[in-house]
Amino acid sequence: MTSNITTRDEFDSISEGCFLVMPPRHTTTRKRKRVSIKDVKATTSRPKVTLSDGFQRLFRGDEPKENMELRRKGFEETWKKTEDLVEVPYLFSSCNYQYDKNNKDQYSTNTTRRTLGIMLDMNHTCLDNISQFVDRAYDTESTMKSLIALPYHEIPTGLVFAGINTPDHATPFEQLTSLLSLPATPENKRTKDNYVALLQSKDCATLQIMMARVIEQFLASNDPSQISDKMDIDNEENGDENESEEDGEEGESREKHEESSKSYTLTANSGDNTCRLQRYDLQMLEGWYKHQMDIRENKSAPRSNLVVILQDLESFAPDVLQNFITICSEYRLRIPIVFIIGIATSTEILHQSLSKSTLGLLRIEKFWLQQSEAWFNRVIETVFIDTPHTIKFGARPYKFMLDHFYLYDFSIGAVKSSLKYALMHCFYGSSLSIFLPLLGRSRPDTLKKLQEMRKRKLITQDHINTLRMQASFKTYIESICDTEPSKALRLVTDDDFFTTAAMADFLCGIETYRQKFKFGLDLIQVLQGQFSAFSTLRKSKRMLLLQSLETRDGLVGGDSTHSEVTRWLVSLVRKVEPDALESLLDALEGLMESNPDYKQRCMTVVDGESRYKISMWKERLVELLAGDKTYVARMEKKAKRLEGMSLPDMEEKRSTETSKKVHAEAIAHMKRKGTEVSKLAMEISDWIHYIFYECLQSYTQVPMHELVYYVQSKLHEKSFSAQPRASVQTALTNSKHYLDCQCCQGGQDQLLPSEPDSCILYKLYLECGRMINLYDWFVAFGCIIEREKSPADNPLNENEVQARFIRSVAELQFLGFIKPTQRKTDHVMRLTWSNI
Amino acid sequence: MDIEEEDDEDDEDSGGRLRSKQDNSEAGYDRYFQDLQTSAKTSNNTLSKLAVLNPKEFNDILASAPKKHDIEIKRLLNAHRSYFSQWVFELHSGFNLIFYGYGSKRRLLNDFAQSSLSNGPLIVINGFFPSINIKDILLKITSGALNITCSTGQVLEHAAVICDYFSDDEREFDHLYLVIHNLDGANLRNERAQTVLSMLANSPNIHLIASVDHINAGLLWDNVKASRFNWIWHDGTTYDDYLVETSFENSLLMRSGEMGGVRGVQYVLTSLTSNGRGVFRVLAEHQLVEMEMSSSDGSDNSALGLPYNKYYQLCREGFYVSSDASLRSQLTEFKDHKIIHTKRLPDGTEVFYIPLDKATLTSIVENMA
Predict the structure, then answer these.
(1) Among A205, B30, B89, B308, which one is least packed by beta carbons within 10 Å?
(2) Quick check: is B351 in a domain?
(3) What is the pLDDT of residues A590-617, one digit of tens each?
(4) Chain B environment of A820 (Cβ under 8 Å)
């Protein structure tokens, strides 16, 4: 019998489903004890087996090794930068929480970085409110503003609404935790030193574990040496300790503990075994808290609160939570516990999972964190518009990311993964990615770097060829070959010139384009803000970016709908009221001043004269407005004459030649004869039109944009929203698609004997009804198999057909297409009804 | 991630799209309701017309049968192999890999793990294994690979210990690789197992390489778990046969002398207490005697079954069980493993029998001794 039990390889066994393979160096050498690791690690830096993290040399292995390293480093640095951008873009400027490292050592550097991140910045006010709420949670009645004297047994509870996507909540709650545990200083407007415990549902399967977690975390926020002593004492597990601390038995169990708590001394010498408290007994926390209050230096300071943060209320087991709340409320008078409860969107869950009596123990106040959408918009702006580093997304990947976020899960994590994967793809697969880190430098700097790379032979002939093969380069050459034939020739023939000076120009050109584009978008935003009457037509930067990515013309030119925004704005400015003109000019000036980017760098086109122009217009406007009444009266008269000539609206889509002509004439006439103010408005709108045209071209016009713009979306779609079922069904119905064989020609509807057995069986399956008779299925299968050309020495026999049939049926069952049924002998149920 | 791959994928995708367009002409739900209305008429043929294959024959036949598309399948496998280093890169960048597509991905993933992932302990988990459970996996990691001991009360706590170990800077092993064949295997489908695995996957230095085969495998994870897993999906269509995976399934066709059945029975028996084995033996011996008397070959074992009260009595006499409840729980275990079947007779008595033929049963009983 045992001879039947065959195993394929070392990982197939009938007695075990789990195998262990140790890494080579450990199987041969003796096992090191964990204690000694410290010394070993200190001397030898970890030997990494895969030095290059899986990076390979491109150009069929011809790429210099340094380049591979360069790409690897490039990826690490760029991702680090991007990650920081996403998490920490607006550092100290807007955030007034200085992190005091000396006070809290236990936070990893990671948390330090995060505490100052974008999330904190955005949630700044909300977090402020929460911390104030925590601080005054146990203040005496006199200081309470809105509430009457506290009834007993109510625990102050902050309900924090954190948004749909629960996995993303980890970061804000970590921030909240570290924020609340900061010591009180005047500059952060805090009044109390609090102790904080952060709980996640996955750590709180039972009441005991939950309690133990809370207590451990509180005690750990104290001096570590003290705790270790204490934990030793309390380590003894006692199985039969009554764990049912439900409402009814609560009083009883407390009485029992009352005695032991008398002998409880926290700083008792550790040999003293009088404390027999369990590690999940709140008595311990109480004792610790008393002790903390006793030993603190400043006795006059207000008592600290103990903050318990429950991060994801939805996933907690309701009964555990109820018991926990009840117990805490019993202790409320002795230890000031404050709850902060994280919740996704609605309080419904609170009422569903907790009983009325438990809810009655909570005094709830609500807080709202920023939704992930706001974060997402800001990330898009920061990463794709505001900063020079990192790759930019082309239309398809960008759309994919937007859709994935808005239509699928609102997940911050997914967006980060998406960005990261694009970077990975770029640096891993593209040899040109070595140029990416050069972006955002000044031209001389870029040039120097390029020359250095050229000298070190990092830029090989392969690179040069690949660069010259880029489509944008080709268009560029074609565009200049008439005007500057010598330059075009040099670009194509002179490798040195091409890789240094020309590349530096290209790289700077990309950056200039970005700055212009940013300016253009900012201008649109400012103008949109000016016309409050049209607020419904406003578009977010996110959508504008999408529009501009999607067309070849960008947001200007052509008659496409994409340029509608800019045309619409220009025409609005043209028709602007005189009194609105002033605020418009102010806004424009503000825009110019706001960003230091516009003052320096390569923005001469936009900046120099425009700044001058704006101030000129302003002066003229002031003059006009200050002009005497007669002047105004004359103006009005003049304006009356022009009434009949008001401009046709943009919304009217009359496109006949005549109407266009009329339109143009009207504008010309206005310019000639219009009031001073409308003349001014005309000029401004012309300028705006010019700026739009300059700035909002499509990125495809920029030579070498391929270096920066990531346009492939296939990989993203496959990697993040794969369709496993469709893939299996394609493999079964259309095996040629995967196998690419010569034999299985013909459509999918045909049944060819050359196809794999399971494919044949699956196609037969598609023809069946709800129930499938195995025998008939077998016969049909056999008919097709028979047509197959079998080798002469091994003719097809009945048993072989049967065995192959059995194998394929088992596969289909394993894949979930059929299931056995008892309804009729030797039948199976069909489980799927369509090819997705 | 080469350029060539892009082309490749373009092809694949257009193929897939083509498909879906054509098949949409008959929507799935339409077809379902259509079939629900009409009475399903199938013939009354049964498989009894066929000869019974024993597992050895089955394997031999399949081994000698001509392999279709052998070259193309090898080519496909080699194409997958060329991505090994990319996968390593993805793993080290903090993603976990999941493979889908038709064909067993065991060979591919084992190859990958053994050739490319040698800088840390590697745990290979067969999710299709009938009695795999999450606790064993965790134990394997802690006591087998890491050589640490910890209280093994709660699996969640246990997993937390492992995660802590791998976020500790002074650990012995930098990385831990978990290769899970069939993350959607029957015994890993439960909430608890998936939660624990997702927690492990979430830990920065633990890397998961998993495969799924069931067409509805995507339904396994909720939002939270999916984000913890942080998958990169890869199409791992191999057209490799599923013989290893399906050998454990109670196959529809090999009712007697079935390979999976015997492997399963033997495994279950070795993992039981001697009393548990005794309970099985009582029934097996009774059935063998009955078979001998009626000279039946095992086509209809239910007729030879043992009624419950008699079974209980026999077990008590052998001191295998002391109470009704303990026998019941023992039998539930056997039933779960589909080793012992039950049937209700028209008069309401419950009879138990073992759905194996005489030869197999004899050999099992002999092996037990």
Answers:
(1) B30
(2) yes
(3) 777 766 555 544 455 555 566 677 777 7
(4) 252
Structural domain including B295 reads 261-368
- Judged against a pLDDT cut of 70, whether residue A708 lies above it is answered with yes
> Is position B69 within any domain?
yes
Contacting residues of B for A18, CB less than 8 Å apart: 123-126, 129, 132, 136-137, 140
Tell me the shortest Cα–Cα distance from A295 to chain B, in angstroms.
32
Mean pLDDT of B259-266: 64
- Chain B residues with CB under 8 Å of A786 CB are none
> Which residue is closest to A827 within chain B, CA to CA?
B46
Q: What are B350-353's contacts with CB under 8 Å, separation 24+?
A: B350/B307, B350/B308, B351/B302, B351/B305, B351/B306, B351/B307, B351/B308, B352/B283, B352/B305, B352/B306, B352/B308, B352/B311, B353/B283, B353/B287, B353/B301, B353/B302, B353/B304, B353/B305, B353/B306
Which residues of chain A are within 8 Å of residue B144 when distances are taken between CB atoms? 20
Restricting to B residues 244-283, those with a Cβ less than 8 Å away from any Cβ of A are 244-246, 249, 251-254, 259, 262-263, 266-267, 270
Contacts of B88 in chain A (CB under 8 A): 50, 53-54
pLDDT tens per residue across span A746-765: 666 778 888 889 999 999 99
Q: Judge whether B10 lies within some domain.
A: no
Q: Are A518 and A530 in contact (CB under 8 A)?
A: no
Position A17 confidence tier, pLDDT thresholds 50, 70, 90: confident
- Cross-chain residue pair A731–B101, CB shorter than 8 Å: yes
Give the residue from B201, B235, B269 where a domain finishes. B235
Q: Is B313 on the interface with A (CB under 8 A)?
A: no
For the cut 80, the answer to whether the pLDDT of residue B182 exceeds it is: yes
Residue B322's CATH number: 1.10.10.10
Q: Is B55 domain-assigned?
A: no
The complex's ipTM works out to: 0.77
User: What pTM was estimated for this model as a whole?
Assistant: 0.76
Q: What is the pLDDT of residues B60-100, one digit of tens each?
A: 888 888 888 888 999 999 999 999 989 999 999 999 999 99
Domains annotated on chain A, with CATH: 118-138+152-221+278-370 (3.40.50.300), 375-597+695-714 (no CATH), 723-830 (1.10.10)
How confident is residue B26, by pLDDT bands cut at 50, 70 and 90?
low
Confidence of residue B262 (pLDDT cuts 50, 70, 90): low
